[in-house]
From TrEMBL:
PANTHER family documented for this protein: ACID PHOSPHATASE-LIKE PROTEIN, VEGETATIVE STORAGE PROTEIN 1-RELATED
Name of the protein described by the UniProt record: Acid phosphatase
Species assigned in the record: Lactuca sativa (Garden lettuce)
Coiled coil spans: none
An example Gene Ontology molecular-function term: nutrient reservoir activity
Keyword line: Glycoprotein, Signal, Storage protein
Cited InterPro entries: Acid_phosphat_B-like, Acid_phosphatase_pln, APS1/VSP, HAD-like_sf, HAD_sf
Cited Pfam families: Acid_phosphat_B
Protein purpose: May function as somatic storage protein during early seedling development.
Length: 266
């Protein structure tokens, strides 16, 4: 009985000292409550001392940081915790839920020309088992195209749960699905196998990049333009993890950005 009572006394003493400190400083500065707030929780509920990584990730997501080639060494663990933890999934889920709300409100005419464009990597399929490797370190190691392509060939990427749910909802609403990826044609069979294995079983078109064809925003714009101008489709929604999936011509009536702090494609 004595020990808890002592502990309680001690807590009250602490609390008292704290209140006294706040009261005396508050008198000196009316803004004390704002400055007293010290957030500790950045990603996934983990305490981390380097809040600059959160700023870095925010700048990445808002496209304020461009053309970066690697996750900063100091943010390797931060990005790892974010990607493997609950926060990343929640962030995707919110985007997907918002996309569904928008899609549901469109009242499709039923002419069969309404398409939804999905990027693949880190949008519908997750390469986290690859990115979690020591040699990749969530993007903190230099890109190794040979190793990544071998991973694509394995066809063992995972479905991103929020995106898979949205995909199924969109099909029910009557959208045609177009997958548009920067991965090369030679991986078509691996990609088909992978998509089907994790639940993406049907689509209108699966567009991969021809060897030698440019990549990034130029490539994606060109393919979307072809879809609309030659294919007669109307891009009602477009979802990607890179800004280069969503910028440029024929971007779609609305675009949705899912998070990706692991790599940048311009
Ligand atoms: C990134 O690279 C692109 C293409 O080279 C260029 O147009 C753009 O201005 C660059 N952005 C920054 C912030 O350097
Ligand atoms: C879609 O249809 C519903 C039900 O008829 C209606 O309430 C809604 O306003 C329509 N939305 C648009 C964008 O036309
Ligand atoms: C890239 O990956 C390949 C295949 O795993 C490996 O053989 C090669 O050594 C790696 N290159 C570098 C620079 O790490
Ligand atoms: Mg992608």
């Amino acid at each position: 009985m004595h020990a808890p009572a002592k502990a309680m006394d001690f807590s009250f003493t602490l609390l008292f000292v704290l209140i006294l400190t706040i009261a005396t400083t508050a008198a000196a500065s009316p803004n004390i409550y704002i400055h007293m707030l010290k957030p500790h929780y950045g990603s996934n509920g983990h305490k981390h001392s380097d809040l600059n990584c959160l700023s870095w990730r925010l700048a990445v997501e808002t496209n304020n940081l461009q053309n970066w080639t690697q996750v900063p060494q100091a943010c390797k663990d931060y990005v790892g915790h974010y990607m493997l933890g609950k926060q990343y999934r929640r962030d995707v889920d919110l985007v997907a839920a918002e996309a569904y709300k928008y899609a549901k409100g469109l009242n499709l005419t039923g002419d069969g020309n309404d398409v939804w464009v999905f990027d693949i990597d880190e949008t519908t399929l997750s390469n986290l088992p690859y990115y979690a490797r020591d040699t990749v370190a969530f993007g903190a190691m230099p890109l190794n195209e040979t190793a990544f392509n071998a991973w694509v060939e394995e066809a063992s990427s995972l479905a991103i749960p929020g995106s898979l749910k949205l995909y199924k909802q969109l099909i029910k609403l009557g959208f045609k699905i177009v997958f548009l990826t920067g991965v090369e044609e030679i991986y078509r069979e691996a990609r088909i196998k992978n998509l089907k294995a994790v639940g993406y079983t049907t689509w209108e078109k699966l567009i991969l990049r021809e060897a030698g064809e440019g990549g990034g925003v130029v490539y994606k714009s060109k393919k979307r333009k072809e879809l609309e101008e030659e294919g007669g489709y109307k891009i009602r929604g477009n979802m990607g993890d890179q800004w280069s999936d969503l910028l440029g011509s024929n971007a779609g009536d609305r675009t949705f950005k899912v998070p990706d702090p692991m790599y940048y494609i311009g």
